[in-house]
Amino acid sequence: MAIRGVIFDYGMVLSKPADHAAHEQMIAASGLPREEFDRLYWRHRHSYDLGMKGPDWWQKVASDAHTAFTQEQIDNLIESDILMWTSLNEEMLGWVVALQNAGLRTAILSNMVWEILGYMRQEFGWLTHFQQQTWSCELGIGKPDPAIYLHTCEKLGTEPSETLFIDDKPENTAGAEKVGLYAIQFSSVEQLRRELAARGLQDGLPVPGVATDSVQVEADA
Questions:
Q1: What's the rounded Cα separation, in Å, for the pair 141 and 51?
Q2: Are 24 and 76 contacting, i.e. CB atoms less than 8 angstroms apart?
Q3: Residue closest to 119 by CA, chosen among 139, 135, 99, 100
Q4: pLDDT per residue over 39-75, tens digit each?
Q5: What is this structure's pTM?
């Protein structure tokens, strides 16, 4: 069956890897040793993705470190966290536009926190061109829960068997495959192009990373 819809993860697919300068700013704002900060940052991140508010989540991080953050620290941490995850992968966004222009249905399915989502909706006008946006913080469920993939396909108007899902995490692509989607673990545009061809999924789709120079993706359009 031909691919009719493509569902994209946001982080590390439509966005670039974590911004180093913003990461350094977060560590400095926390006052914690680097290794401890990085360990605690991820410990309860899924709770944040499922709808916990930023100030509450950062105080949970602080509690695990046997300290407390001031309001000023929390404001700085949230600001740096936003900056860390909002540098865009223009080449992938170019492919999104090419897919949309070719008549493919497109969606975003992302484990996302409220504060970053708020910034994205304010600054990234291109979000409105997706037929479906699925954000874990709004639903209270996240990848790799089977329900979130099925919800996204239903809202997108495609069957799992005619839908491609692209994500950087193996547990998320495995979750998508369990409910019948085609799934590719993303690491680069070149790797995506090779895998689409190798799996016979390229037919009828624009080629990732090819002839996208003329596509203008306006972050604030």
A1: 9
A2: no
A3: 135
A4: 999 999 999 999 999 999 999 999 999 999 999 999 9
A5: 0.94
User: CA torsion, points 136, 127, 120, 24, in degrees to nearest 10?
Assistant: 90
Residue whose entry in the numeric block shows the structure tokens 């193996």: 170
| CA–CA dist 161, 5 (Å, integer) | 10
The tokens describing 15, both together, are 């966005």
Domain 5-16+87-198 has CATH 3.40.640.10: no
- Interhelix angle for 189-198 vs 90-101, to 10°? 40
Domain ranges of the chain: 5-16+87-198, 20-84
pLDDT tens profile 138-170: 999 999 999 999 999 999 999 999 999 999 999
Cα separation, 116 vs 3, in Å, equals 30
Rounded Cα gap, residues 124 and 85, in angstroms: 13
Question: How many alpha carbons fall within 13 Å on the CB side of residue 97?
Answer: 18
Query: 178-209 as b/e, with b when 16 or more CB fall inside 10 Å?
Result: ebbbbbbbbeebeebbebbeeeebbeebbebb
Residues 130, 152: contact at Cβ < 8 Å? no
- State yes or no: cis peptide before 144, omega within 30 of 0: yes
